[in-house]
Design goal:
Pfam families (chains A, B, C, D): Cyclase
Organism (chains A, B, C, D): Saxibacter everestensis
CATH class of the largest domain in chain A: Alpha Beta
EC number (chains A, B, C, D): 3.5.-.-
Number of domains of chain A: 2
Radius of gyration of chain A: 20 Å
Enzyme class (chains A, B, C, D): hydrolase
GO molecular function, one term (chains A, B, C, D): hydrolase activity
Largest sheet of chain A: 9 strands, mixed
Strand order of the largest sheet of chain A: 1-19-17-11-13-15-16-5-18
Strand content of chain A: 15-25%
CATH superfamily of the largest domain in chain A: Putative cyclase
Largest interface: A-B, 107 and 107 residues
Structural class of chain A: alpha/beta
Oligomer: homotetramer
Shape of chain A: globular
CATH architecture of the largest domain in chain A: 3-Layer(bba) Sandwich
């Protein structure tokens, strides 16, 4: 990989990993096409104890966002409260009282999916569509996240890179340092060491734990939103393509390693995998309790249910993914 | 039931169905305590084909809300679009382009859960807490919906009252008319006729289809938000208590029959079951495709995954529930 | 005017009234350039009694908006209340208590100015700039409303067409009927009948009262937002150009007559006067109390102060214009 | 002043400065009652050159707010853009194109007025009303800012403490240091030194420039929102009461000196002057260009027009105040 030639590397890798037309001209699902009934049935059969883990970070004003691209933390306000109910100012009879609330938030403020309309490559959206007429101010007119409302439940697999690599990088915690680029070799090593339940294949939703989120819980958010972070190397694109995973999520803000590996680029792996491969990416997931449970039992696959909110035309969605083991 | 004495009937029924203290003084989960690992394992084992149904209505400006209590439809706006990406005005290198978005919405605008802080009875919130210090302008400080982030996955059971009663009420469609009060007898009849897979018990999440949502898809929203509707009779409270269901959701705006059955009351069944029983209520669910699949196969139970977004302090949450069969 | 040939008529009128380059290539103010210190001094000297009129409609959920182009009524919510203060849940010492609030609103939801970036003509914004790079998802990068923060105070003149024409149209109220197109002849007649204080010239801010807002106060909003309305005829563009007014505001939703006068057009007068002439347009003003005062005294000019909120990059602004007489 | 006894000092000063009942039991205007037609006429006559100054700070995401009490910076988003217009995806005929926008913001995010419902003293709002039933989740039901829509235009007077005291405090810039408490003696000295046009009396709107805002323009926002700042001493309350000013605004976040002068208090001067005196307070004003003009000409009074947006029930309002000289 030539770090001085991002445009060329991106173009080459995009071509290599491109799935345009693979599921027809009208496709809106990309790699979610890899998930079918059989896959979901396989996933449901992984449940052995009924134990559940929520994989969401909190949605509140104490979040990591600092306003970049107008991404703020969510603002939740009450339109009615218990205090009003006590005071009898709500106008309901018989001692009835109520509380109601509203929220204003970027769809990328906390745990989320990137939709296929979230990233473009040289003016093209997923399946080769023109970006400018696909995602307008009215939203994503073609691949809006609501089209994937029933498609993000599958077998989940956790690759806990933070734990797997802790020894060889000599870390105090099971966490990768900021700037650490996870390569194909690291991914394959993780699968090997974690064993059979960690094999990754068609239709799986792959969860990659770096440990960075655990670090923020200890040290504060710092530059979690956009700053240096461990993450996938740009060079993993072909592996992601070859394994035919349906989606990949990480416990970091930006999925790929930061700073990015080119001298001048911005999230180049996004640029390849979303518009070209049609891959769904999840970010800012909380994989902590799940990772502990997996490690304790050395069992790394589970039923993952992470359907997006069907917000018409959205290019992303806040979610509360749950893993059932 | 004396329809002229709502305060008395509410007080009596509340006392009869009250679960305060049942799970300790600090409890924040109410009837969700009925769901345990064994229950979730039972639920996962119901999956036979891997077929999935999203039970959410759309989240967009074409929704049913008309502004009552400042409940508007969601407003989704883009902070970056494909058109900007094409124009090269986004400042990214190498042909990278992106789209981003934000949403402003009442948490009760579309398919949702009512949290335990949503309704009060004579100044008391769930478990007997003082409403005014439990749910303030800072949100629900005790029973915020984030406390239930990992608790709304269980066995789901659909009771399709619209279909079951179509014959005896002589309806053109499998839909109950507005104002139709579903009683305990109707519920038991539905269980009987639907058969073994429709039995309702401890920890189940009960889905009640009235058919009203199907009607709005045919005729327009009309007064779906707050107007006349089929729904549960106030008199079903003891049955809901006795069956020990964990949660109940309907395809209507307001769960209970409207107009309410008292001369002067507002959502009296809410007033009993949320603060007194600790029951989670879901509203505005889209049960159509699930109901068709269940009817076709005469199999009415499934794995239901409907975790709320963990919005800190929220008294409700938008959701995309999915049923796996 | 050929009502079957809107494109041709618009192109011809746009060319006739175009002010591109008149104030230099970098101009961001358009006709506001007509207002100078002398004009403001003249305006201040019109004040004789110190009487004041607020010309704003209310900003609340009971407004006219119905969601077209996601234009909702404003949603105002409290983040702290007096009820919380009483309960002592706010954490302040010494009996201190506070209330705070937030608002979410379209900038065009109630009384407002259209900024110069609000309308484009065949891909061109004010002064001939390319629309696509002038107003992006980041807002109006050139003519954002903040550039006019100190430019919307001048001599105001009220032309009360509703009153002036009441007799000859035989109306029960001093109000023009919906669909009534105000022509140059009507405007000149109004000036004649109202007298010297109603003369209109360079740098004035012209307020045109149709009476439609008064009708909504009597009859309800109805289709105030976008429906039939009295308003300026497309044919008044040259007059608006010739008089060199700095801005024009009406008591209607849309400034120009609706339905528009062409078989197929949408707000064609906007299309001419905003991007071509550089004219600021105000809409949804409440001219009622001012009109009564003017009529009573037969004095129609005043100091008008209507500065926009300097929202960076906005293409419009909510305002509370005040007239000082 | 005993800095260890805030509750006692607050109670004593509140009693001393209390205006409850002064304008009747139903009053909603407080000290704005001091402004009458004669006062506005006097103000208009101060205009000599027609020169205008906007006194607003910007409204955008690059503002000072950091999320305290959910006070974020404004989030402005486009619902239609010029890029869409160019692409012809808006659905308008004849080459018509449009841009539209929305904003979500705390009403206290930038240049603003505090309404009378913004602060309470021991459970009481302005005029002795009960806080809990005056300002509920539905907003300020009595003294909502819309009641002052036509009342905030008057004679403005600038006291430029930053300039007046620069010499004696030996400052490099005409700016008071953070933590500097402006006393009655300072105010009187400023009036003396600035001369006749700086006299302060009944119905005036007093603008106090500390210079802190100028410092943030040079050094960055830092802790402008809530951190250390120059401002009025708690001890100025009787002076504010005695002079019968209608309103007071500063170029700081919080009007009064910070840290506050008591060991344990939060904005104690607010607690006295808003609910007890009925005084309108303005914060985060940009007085820079006005101050330079006043200093150059040694003329410190002007016509000030600063009407709030009439947001029904609001306890504050964003504004763009303008001074006409």
């Amino acid at each position: 990989m030539d770090r001085t030639a991002p445009a060329q590397e991106i173009a080459r890798t995009a071509e290599q990993c491109r799935n345009w037309g693979r599921w027809g001209d009208d496709d809106v699902l990309g790699t979610l096409n890899f998930i079918d009934d059989a896959k979901r049935l396989e996933a449901a059969r992984l449940v052995r104890t009924g134990e559940i883990h929520s994989l969401a970070q909190a949605f509140d004003t104490n979040g990591p966002q600092k306003g970049w691209r107008r991404r703020t933390n969510p603002v939740h306000t009450m339109t009615d409260t218990g205090a009003d109910a006590e005071n009898g100012t709500q106008g309901f009879p018989n001692g009835m009282g109520g509380a109601d609330d509203v929220i204003a938030m970027p769809l990328q403020c906390s745990t989320q999916w990137d939709g296929l309309g979230h990233i473009f490559d040289r003016g093209k959206a997923w399946n080769g569509r023109r970006a400018g007429v696909t995602v307008t101010s009215d939203g994503d007119l073609v691949t809006g996240i609501q089209t994937a409302a029933a498609n993000l439940v599958s077998r989940g697999v956790l690759l806990d890179l933070g734990r797997v690599l802790q020894g060889e990088i000599g870390a105090d915690y099971p966490e990768l340092p900021d700037g650490f680029a996870i390569t194909e070799a690291h991914l394959e090593a993780a699968i090997d060491r974690q064993g059979e339940s960690a094999r990754v294949g068609r239709g799986d939703i792959l969860l990659i734990r770096t440990g960075q989120y655990a670090r923020t819980r200890r040290d504060g958010w710092g530059d979690y939103a956009g700053g240096p972070a461990p993450g996938l190397s740009f060079t993993t694109a072909p592996w992601l393509h070859r394994t035919e995973v349906a989606a990949v999520a990480t416990d970091t803000w930006g999925f790929e390693v930061r700073p990015n590996e080119f001298d001048d680029a911005f999230q180049p792996l996004h640029q390849v995998v979303i518009p070209n491969m049609g891959l769904f990416i999840g970010e800012m997931w909380n994989l902590e309790s799940l990772a502990e449970a997996c490690a304790a039992e050395r069992r790394y696959d589970f039923l993952l249910s992470a359907p997006p909110l069907p917000i018409t035309g959205a290019v992303g969605s806040p979610i509360n993914p749950v893993a059932l083991r």
